[in-house]
Design brief:
1 helix, binds magnesium ion, eight-stranded antiparallel beta sheet, Jelly Rolls, mainly beta, 15 strands
């Protein structure tokens, strides 16, 4: 390489470095300095979180719940078929499965549901024939109610299952003469205008305070035979199943979300 060439390269490099320096100087001037971080910058005060009064224990209805059964009567319920009066008997602050399914008169979308149930004291039959009932979310999606205390059946059909879709994570069943508690957090499915699914229903279930369904997606109506298939729907009631077993219910409340 000649001296002339070396000189040319040196000049070019110097020009480039100076140019880059000048450019970054301009850039540095144009980019405003980030403000100094202070604690208040990440504290959001609005909207203020609504105040409610929790129940006197972890099963009592909080102040913003709709009470669906308070031990007195079935005024919030109707017969699922025909819509007449619910023909289930109320006794001692609880009611027992009678003839035909029953549904709430109100309709719901997304909610938190608290419901207590007890398998029949008299242990009869086995598998799906023992203490079978069910809680149908939006009248379609069954959280199974079954006497699963020392009673083997198919896992995705035992207490706490999303019937024939999701088995419970554990069997948290109490004895037949004791009360079971379900706390159910449910997000309804959303549908597109053409009726196809935009997002499936999701559900979390606690059985006696134990997580048994962890935000699982529901695949469609819980069918006894065949595969689930969604059909578009809006708000719908909660229904309770008459499966021919005298399962008892008490203390039912719901919070719309
Ligand atoms: Mg059932």
């Amino acid at each position: 390489m000649t001296t002339k060439h070396t000189c040319f390269i040196r000049t070019a490099l110097t020009t480039a470095i100076l140019g880059l320096f000048a450019f970054t100087q301009v850039q540095a001037q144009e980019v405003p300095k980030p403000p100094k971080m202070v604690p208040e910058m990440t504290e959001f005060w609005e909207p203020e979180v609504r105040v409610i009064t929790p129940g006197t224990n972890n099963t009592a209805a909080p102040s913003d719940a709709i009470v669906l059964f308070d031990g007195k009567n079935l005024s919030e319920w109707k017969a699922k078929d025909g819509g007449g009066a619910a023909q289930w008997q109320v006794n001692n602050g609880e009611f027992t499965v009678g003839k035909g399914d029953i549904s709430t008169k109100r309709e719901f979308q997304d909610f938190q549901l608290h419901i207590e149930w007890s398998a029949p004291d008299l242990v009869q039959s086995s598998s799906q024939g023992r203490g079978n009932s069910g809680i149908f979310l939006q009248d379609r999606y069954e959280v199974q109610v079954l006497d699963s205390y020392n009673n083997r059946t198919y896992s995705n059909g035992q207490a706490g299952s999303i019937y024939k879709q999701h088995r419970p994570l554990v069997n948290a069943m109490r004895k037949p003469n004791e009360w079971n508690v379900y706390d159910i957090i449910y997000t309804a499915p959303r549908f597109k205008e053409d009726g196809s699914v935009f997002s499936p229903a999701r559900v979390t279930v606690l059985h006696n305070g134990v997580l048994v369904q962890n935000n699982v997606d529901i695949k469609g109506p819980t069918e006894y035979i065949g595969l689930p298939e969604y059909k578009a729907h809006g708000k719908a009631p909660i229904s309770l199943q008459d499966h021919g077993n005298p399962v008892a219910y008490r203390n039912i409340w719901i919070r719309e979300l």
